[in-house]
Automatic annotation (TrEMBL), chain A:
Pfam families: 6PF2K (PF01591), His_Phos_1 (PF00300). The active site is at 236 (tele-phosphohistidine intermediate), 305 (proton donor/acceptor). The lineage of its organism: Eukaryota, Metazoa, Chordata, Craniata, Vertebrata. Substrate binds at residues 235-242, 285. GO terms for biological process: fructose 2,6-bisphosphate metabolic process; fructose metabolic process. Keywords: ATP-binding, Hydrolase, Kinase, Multifunctional enzyme, Nucleotide-binding, Phosphoprotein, Transferase. GO terms for cellular component: 6-phosphofructo-2-kinase/fructose-2,6-biphosphatase complex. It comes from Astatotilapia calliptera. This is 6-phosphofructo-2-kinase domain-containing protein.
From TrEMBL, chain B:
GO terms for cellular component: cytosol. Residues 18-28 have a biased composition (Low complexity). Signal peptide: none annotated. The lineage of its organism: Eukaryota, Metazoa, Chordata, Craniata, Vertebrata. InterPro entries: 6Pfruct_kin, 6Phosfructo_kin, His_Pase_superF_clade-1, His_PPase_superfam, P-loop_NTPase, PG/BPGM_mutase_AS. The keyword ATP-binding applies. It comes from Astatotilapia calliptera. Residues 1-10 have a biased composition (Basic and acidic residues). Substrate binds at residues 292-299, 342. This is 6-phosphofructo-2-kinase domain-containing protein. It comes from the Eukaryota.
Length: 448, 505
């Protein structure tokens, strides 16, 4: 690797990008030529994830969940669902259930034959894509029946049918595929990269994981489960700094905050949850809230509120006064904006990934956390994109109960009837650096 | 959380919140009958780790739980399975090192070791013949002795995971282990290594068996021949983990050095982490280069943390680093830096693409950011003493501890395992954590590992461990290593505290 040293690079100064606070070489404003990437290099070439398996084996469930997860961690992913293709075209990007439109019947839509898969692999090679197959194998009739009931009957195909008739019809459809179904063969297909999931995750076969993103996908798939459960998300009770309109810090609960903690205890008891795990951050206000529950809880540092760096414990008015440019930049791109010596929502997501992974593994969990953290977690469960995430409403003294259902998540919101200050600041109209203070402070919620 | 730049620095803490508002009140709850809820316990912040914990009568209560990796109450017994020379000991040692590094007390128990202690001199493969009654008796005895030590480790010595490293190739032997585990309330996770590639097996034998105490008096050919016969002794009775017969067991079967894995019934978090780790490691030869950024402006001033640029000497180092890397003629080198100016400036001199990782940022010294040790002693003498008492667990106020750093760096380690040739340009505390992982250093040693500026550490995996070469690039730099002083008591005098501070401007 013999590279000549370019003398001019020695004198190249570094400058810190104002939004992301990333150091880059200053070469007259052309950021495109910089060598340092600040985005994790998950994959160099696009990856196609191809689902394999008979109908009602959870392929769409897995696809949607995987797509949601990958997008949340910052890997642009799109799902291309065969069922929908018959009705509308969907754009292919990096992740899809492949269906090649020819005059063959929908039979092959589930990629159940070796020929079909060979076509996919050569298509991918032409395009320079990597291929990773995910096969779901299940012979438990109860699981299959439940799958059919949960998701197929919402499908437009069965809108007007009687349930038993639809079940019968669907079972027959499965049988049609079964005749030509060729599972991925461990001998013949040993050059392919794939994971086989048996019986909803009690067993896995993993072959030839090629790169980081495939390794992450395998890890994720091995941690998810379908056991019914609920996840409860709540912020700490109202804190002293909340009342004063100050962000961050590490204060205790206000009197109303303490009332909320008791109310939360009552609420949780009323829910009669089996084997509930309770998680808090390391910050006093969440720990205090959990203490009122009278049960064991785990403290996670990863659940700490977003670090506002130099803006810690300031009011928005003070931020506007002392750091008006920062304040404007934040309104311009709240997801990627990093506080000086602090974090961005993007950093938060990265920090929270192990929490999400463990939430997937667990069953009933109550997470007592903070506004920005809760927004990130909620965005994961409700599949909210990066630009919506920082504006999700997560008011104090409100518990969100998330219950996985079909392909998504049911949300129930419980306000526990203890008044609290509003901490939600909407994006103001004027996000320009030149704006005046009133415009910047227009959407600041009231405080003492 | 970084607080303020030096120019705005307060000396001594000034609360921003008026004292009255910060006081916790114990006003009675209205109308709540629930006993647990009426008396939430008072919280105090533990001075070392800065963890909020409930206390009663001035003493911390036990009810609190900090997130640890191994949250199960059940200890775990990992059992290797496989013919000789399949990498079982390699996997056992590596896994043990990884688990200990992430904070799960783990120990490996190699039955072969027990056998060597029992049968002082190894004669030949005949010992392992399936019809050798005497040999079988001894081997069974050794397995029992090892299991006994496992029991002691997991029930009395605070161990969380024990790795039982032996061939365990028969279902009968595995049954015995399962019974033992059930009696003692241990969870069992099998790790089987299956490999038929003769090249791999040959390489294993050359790399680790030839240096074994068993073969000190043999030449290479003799040793290889004997070992091959030894393997044959196991082959006929080998019962691999079976998808049907063993479907209720928890295990991972690693095939062909990681081309393929079969994973069955992962029961809990720690097993899931173990599987993930095992699926990411490889044995392709490669080297990992670790170094710090070039000397920085704050380094020469004796100040910690911050985000300053390189000094002239630091830039000199960056240039020399570039030469060095070129001379090493490394194929496909990945270069990683933190997101701090000084590591990026260093990487820039290499003229190659590099990746910035925020998690490689230096330890956050919180309120002590950009202070000199003398200033920390003056303003936070208690904190300074606590840090010397337990440098690994000590967390800076509004900052981090080494323990936090390790948790933060885990994805870096995982990715380093996946990668091949990598150069990591990072920081003192970060480098100590990474080095501790590769060289299997304890938590007590970790914060005092010597990682001087302008020195590259080249790590090359070899046999069961890691070869380290330390290459100084011959550019002078300030010393930033502060040894643990003799007196770590909070009552010590300033001079005693500052005894080991390295000189600076």
């Amino acid at each position: 690797m013999a590279l000549a040293i370019n003398i001019s690079t020695e004198h190249k100064n570094l400058t810190q990008t104002p939004l992301l606070k990333i150091w880059v070489p200053w070469s007259g404003g052309n950021l495109n030529r910089r060598r340092g990437s600040s985005v994790p290099q998950f994959c160099n070439s696009p990856t196609m994830i191809v689902m394999v398996g008979l109908p009602a084996r959870g392929k769409t469930y897995i696809s949607k969940k995987l797509t949601r997860y990958l997008n949340w961690i910052g890997v642009p992913t799109k799902m291309f669902n065969v069922g929908q293709y018959r009705r509308e075209a969907v754009k292919i990007y990096k992740n899809f259930e492949f269906f090649k439109p020819d005059n063959e019947e929908v039979f092959d839509a589930t990629n159940t034959t070796r020929e079909r898969r060979a076509i996919i692999v050569s298509f991918a090679m032409e395009m320079g894509y990597k291929v990773f197959f995910v096969e779901s194998i299940c012979d438990d009739p109860e699981i299959i029946a439940e799958n059919i009931r949960q998701v197929k009957f919402g499908s437009p195909d069965y809108a007007d049918r009687d349930i038993d008739e639809a079940m019968e019809d669907f079972t027959q459809r499965i049988d049609c595929y079964r005749a030509s179904y060729m599972p991925i063969d461990d001998e013949k297909d040993r050059k392919l990269s794939y994971i086989k999931i048996f019986d909803v995750g009690s067993r896995y076969l993993v072959n030839r994981v090629q790169d980081h993103i495939q390794s992450r996908i395998v890890y994720y798939l091995m941690n998810i489960h379908v056991t019914p459960r609920s996840i409860y998300l709540s912020r700490h009770g109202e804190s002293e700094l909340n009342l004063l309109g100050r962000i961050g810090g590490d204060t205790g609960l206000s009197p109303r905050g303490k009332k909320y903690a008791s109310a939360l205890a009552t609420f949780i008891k009323g829910q009669k949850i089996i084997d509930l795990k309770v998680w808090t951050s390391h910050m006093k206000r969440t720990v205090q809230t959990a203490e009122a529950l009278g049960v064991q809880y785990e403290q996670w540092k990863a659940l700490n509120e977003i670090d506002a760096g130099v803006c810690e414990e300031l009011t928005y008015e003070e931020i506007q006064e002392n750091f008006p440019e920062e304040f404007a930049l934040r309104d311009q791109d709240k997801y990627r904006y990093r506080y000086p010596k602090g974090e961005s929502y993007e950093d938060l997501v990265h920090r929270l990934e192990p929490v999400i992974m463990e939430l997937e593994r667990q069953e009933n969990v109550l997470v007592i956390c903070h506004q920005a953290v809760m927004r990130c977690l909620l965005a994961y469960f409700l599949d909210k994109p990066a630009d919506e995430l920082p504006y999700l409403r997560c008011p104090l003294h409100t518990v969100l109960k998330l219950t996985p259902i079909a392909y998504g998540c049911k949300v129930e919101s419980f306000f526990l009837n203890i008044e609290a200050v509003n901490t939600h600041r909407e994006r103001p109209l004027n996000v320009n650096i030149t704006r005046n203070p009133e415009e910047a402070l227009q959407t600041v919620p009231d405080h003492i | 959380m970084k607080h303020r730049s030096t120019s705005e620095q307060h000396h001594g803490k000034k609360p921003r919140v008026p004292a009255a508002a910060a006081a916790t009140s114990t006003s009675p709850q209205d109308g709540m009958e629930d006993k647990a809820a009426t008396n939430p316990r008072e919280l105090t912040q533990n001075p070392l780790k800065k963890i909020w914990m409930p206390y009663k009568n001035g003493l911390p209560e036990k009810h609190i739980c900090q997130r640890k990796v191994c949250m199960t109450n059940c200890p775990t017994l990992i059992v290797t399975v496989g013919l000789p020379a399949r990498g079982k000991t390699y996997i056992s040692k590596k896994l043990t090192r990884y688990l200990n590094w992430i904070g799960v007390p783990t120990r490996e128990f190699n039955v072969g070791q027990y056998r060597r202690e029992f049968v002082k001199i190894y004669k030949s493969f005949e010992f392992f013949r399936p019809d050798n009654e005497e040999g079988l008796k001894i081997r069974r005895k050794c397995a029992s002795a090892a299991l006994n030590d496992v029991r002691e480790y997991l029930t009395e010595d605070g161990g969380q995971v024990a790795v039982f490293d032996a061939t365990n190739t028969t279902r009968e032997r595995r049954e015995t282990i399962l019974e033992f585990a059930e009696q003692n309330g241990f969870k069992v996770f099998f790790v089987e290594s299956v490999c038929e590639d003769p090249d791999v097996i040959q390489e294993n034998i050359v790399q680790v068996k030839l240096d074994s105490p068993d073969y000190t008096n043999c030449n290479t050919e003799e040793a290889v021949e004997d070992f091959m016969k030894r393997i044959k002794c196991y082959e006929n009775s080998y019962e691999t983990l079976d998808e049907i017969l063993d479907r209720d067991l928890s295990y991972i079967k690693i095939m062909d050095v990681g081309q393929r894995y079969l994973v069955n019934r992962v029961l809990d978090h720690i097993q899931s982490r173990i599987v993930y780790y095992l699926m990411n490691i490889h044995i392709t030869p490669r080297s990992i280069y670790l170094c710090r950024h070039g000397e920085s402006e704050l380094n020469v001033k004796g100040r910690i943390g911050g985000d300053s640029g390189l000094t002239i000497r630091g830039k000199e180092f960056a240039k020399k680093l570039s030469h060095f890397i070129q001379e090493q003629n490394i194929s496909d080198l990945k270069v990683w830096t933190s997101q701090m100016k000084r590591t990026i400036q260093t990487a820039e001199a290499l003229n190659v693409p590099y990746e910035q990782w925020k998690v490689l940022n230096e330890i956050d010294a919180g309120v002590c950011e950009e202070l000199m040790y003398e200033e920390i002693q003056r303003n936070y003498p208690l904190e300074f003493a606590l840090r010397d008492q337990d440098k690994y667990r000590y967390r800076y106020p509004k900052g981090e501890s080494y323990e936090d750093l390790v948790q933060r760096l885990e994805p870096v380690i995982m990715e380093l395992e996946r990668q091949e040739n990598v150069l990591v340009i990072c920081h003192q505390a970060v480098l100590r954590c990474l080095l501790a992982y590769f060289l299997d250093k304890t938590a007590e040693e970790l914060p005092y590992l010597k990682c001087p500026l302008h020195t590259v550490l080249k790590l090359t995996p070899v046999a069961y461990g890691c070869k380290v070469e330390s290459i100084s690039l011959n550019v002078d730099a300030v010393n930033t290593h502060r040894e643990r002083p003799a007196n770590v008591d909070v009552s010590r005098m300033s001079e005693e505290a500052l005894l080991t501070v390295p000189s600076h401007q």
